[in-house]
Specification:
heterodimer, A: about 400 residues, alpha/beta, eight-stranded parallel sheet, 17 strands, about 20% strand, B: about 70 residues, mainly alpha, globular
């Protein structure tokens, strides 16, 4: 990690640590997130200490928790002794902080350069920081989604509800996302197809069909009109319209349920666990349907090989490694790019797995994706038996 | 404060507190604003585009705050 003086700040590997013009104005904007009368506050990444010093000027503040997101970076910053000596300051290693405490100030650059053992906390901090943007996005799209729901009213009235599927399939489940590693798993899924209830994200539908795997259930959560492209099937692939159940968000584009020729089930917010991504709802549905073992495939939650989706998926997007602010560590221990939404999904999926502990065991496939707490890796993935032969007792033990 | 200044202020604040995706959306709203004269800020806009390419968000904030905002009504 290289620090270079630059104006009023330093560059960390070429990236500005703080404002190079007016650090105090910047720090004032940051500490404005902490109420003036707060007795306790948290700082995730001390940066150059400006926000800490401003907070310590407040008489109401009795305790200031400073969390080190990168020990090497913090050790290289001068003047830290001035705030460390204040008896109100408690310094914590990120790995020792289990959740996000509020109110808080976070240094964007500290989050970017968080060391691997701080990644879990960083992901949780980012999940909080991204929430206002997600709310803004949903509010912007709400009129479109309301129109969708009104247009879907007729099919909703005659279709089943997702709860009709609960308790209906006790086979092991494959929850298929459209991450790049999905295709690595196609051979064993195809070979053991009948043993599994395959629940696919709509984004994984076409890649699965092209690997000759027709899922039992397809779930569409996202309500953007462009999602129609996930269903752009022709010829034999369109057979899935008849043999596969569609579970659809009531607010999805009406073209989707209208085109489906198989059984359909509508769902509302709250019917299944909401963690931000369709994957959470697929995983929850698998358990609600009766699976006691859930195999997660194509659930990479990062950008393996700088790709956003598996080959053949519709709506992939470019991944610019240089512009990717955040890095994480994949199942092989390799550095890989990620993004705030994927960081959020990873942690909420871990919450879901914890929620189902004792009811269902989760197994993760595809080590080019990120590890998930509570979901051990499925063998070495060198043979089909490895992929399938994970006894429930082994994965729950 | 004019609506355009408010947008610039919002983009800056969001960037410095780490709400960078929201900040990027606010910056794009600045670029689309009918009163924003992009041709007069071409150099600064170029710097911001470069900084986005490096995910250098504090640099983006500085350019918005100290190179563009003072020249906008």
């Amino acid at each position: 990690m290289k620090l270079t003086p630059y104006g009023a700040t330093v560059l960390v590997d070429g990236v500005q640590f703080t404002s190079a013009v007016d650090r105090i104005a910047e720090a004032r904007a940051q500490v404005a997130l902490v109420p003036e009368d707060a007795a306790e506050a948290w700082v995730y990444g001390p940066a150059l200490g400006d926000a800490i010093r401003l907070l310590l000027e407040r008489r109401a503040l009795e305790r200031l928790h400073v969390v080190i997101m990168n020990a090497e970076l913090s050790a290289a910053v001068p003047d830290a002794a001035t705030w460390r000596a204040d008896p109100r300051v408690a310094v914590h290693a990120a790995a020792d902080v289990a959740r996000v405490f509020t109110p808080f100030v976070a240094s964007p650059v500290e989050l970017r350069f968080a060391e691997p053992r701080a990644h879990e906390l960083r992901d949780k901090v980012m999940s909080v920081l991204i929430q206002p943007f997600n709310t803004f996005t949903m509010e912007t799209l709400a009129p479109t989604f309301d129109r969708h729901e009104a247009a879907n009213a007729r099919v909703i009235a005659t279709d089943g509800k997702v709860s009709d599927l609960f308790g209906r399939d006790e086979r092991k489940a494959v929850v298929a996302g459209a991450g790049p590693s999905l295709i690595e798993n196609a051979a064993w899924i195809r070979e053991a197809r009948r043993e599994f209830n395959v629940i696919a994200a709509s984004s994984a539908l076409l890649p699965l069909l092209r690997a000759a795997i027709i899922p039992d259930v397809v779930l569409v959560l996202d309500c953007l009109p462009m999602l129609v492209r996930h269903f752009a099937m022709e010829g034999w692939e369109a057979d899935a319209y008849r043999r596969t159940a569609l579970v659809y968000n009531r607010r999805c584009d009406p073209l989707i349920p209208a085109a489906w020729r198989g059984t359909r089930y509508s769902m509302r917010d709250g019917d299944l666990y909401g963690g931000g991504s369709v994957i959470h709802q697929q995983a929850d549905l698998a358990v609600q349907m009766g699976a006691r073992a859930v195999h997660l495939v194509g659930v990479d939650l990062c950008f393996p090989g700088s790709r956003s989706h598996v080959v053949g998926a519709m709506l992939p997007y470019p991944v610019d490694e240089h512009a990717q602010m955040f890095r994480t560590v994949d199942g092989n221990g390799r550095d890989v790019a990620t993004a705030p939404d994927l960081m959020l999904y990873r942690r909420t999926l871990e919450d879901l797995i914890e929620r189902h502990r004792g009811r269902a065991a989760f197994v993760k496939h595809g080590r080019t994706g990120v590890p998930l707490r509570g979901a051990p890796w499925a063998g070495a993935m060198t043979t089909i038996r490895d992929a399938l032969g994970v006894p429930l007792a082994e994965v729950t033990g | 404060m004019s609506p355009l200044r408010e947008l610039l202020d919002r983009a800056w604040r969001l960037m410095v507190v780490g709400q960078t995706a929201y900040g990027a959306t606010s910056w794009r709203a600045v670029l689309r604003h009918r009163e924003f004269r992009g041709d007069e800020h071409a150099e600064a806009i170029g710097k911001i585009e470069q900084a986005f390419g490096r995910a250098d968000f504090m640099r983006i904030a500085d350019v918005i705050r100290y190179e563009i905002t003072p020249a906008v009504q």
